[in-house]
């Protein structure tokens, strides 16, 4: 029996399709975050990027997202070790840290909607930045981390 690629390859060794499939589609990386200037503590909000479909957790224009949202962080093989704000459930973070994918991950279940079904996504829990009050402090939550 052959082991799945994420058990035999490091993130740096994955091809583009494998890399993209590691994303569990949770949408947590699309949440606006605030950082305390004095303590550097990071706070997640329940406000999502305007491109995120708040129900399906899919980006409405993934291939061109950085044209619409210039500060959208593109996670790469080179920067994966430097990004420390990813939630603890992030598949890239888990694999980077030598852990396995959770049982609800789409690569494990074969169901692209399994992250949403398992309640591990932002689906139904967030609003678009287009609908939010400008004071993001009003939307600080503790559930993504």
TrEMBL record:
Transmembrane segments: none annotated. It holds the Pfam family CxxCxxCC. InterPro entries: Puta_zinc/iron-chelating_dom, UCP006173. Belongs to the UPF0260 family. NCBIfam families: PRK05170.1-5, PRK05170.2-5. PANTHER family: UPF0260 PROTEIN YCGN (PTHR37421:SF1). This is UPF0260 protein TMES_00065. The lineage of its organism: Bacteria, Pseudomonadati, Pseudomonadota, Alphaproteobacteria, Rhodospirillales.
């Amino acid at each position: 029996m052959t082991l799945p690629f994420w058990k035999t390859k490091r993130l740096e060794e994955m091809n583009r399709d494998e890399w993209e499939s590691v994303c569990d589609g949770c949408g947590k990386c699309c949440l606006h975050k605030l950082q305390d200037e004095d303590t550097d503590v990071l706070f997640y909000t329940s406000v999502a990027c305007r491109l995120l479909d708040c129900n399906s957790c899919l980006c409405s224009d993934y291939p061109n997202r950085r044209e619409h949202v210039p500060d959208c962080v593109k996670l790469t093989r080179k920067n994966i070790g430097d990004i420390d704000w990813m939630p603890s459930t992030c598949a890239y973070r888990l694999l980077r840290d030598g852990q396995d994918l959770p049982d609800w991950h789409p690569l494990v279940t074969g169901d692209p909607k399994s992250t949403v079904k398992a309640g591990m996504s932002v689906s139904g829990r967030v609003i678009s930045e287009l609908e939010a009050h400008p004071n993001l402090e009003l939307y600080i939550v503790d559930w993504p981390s």
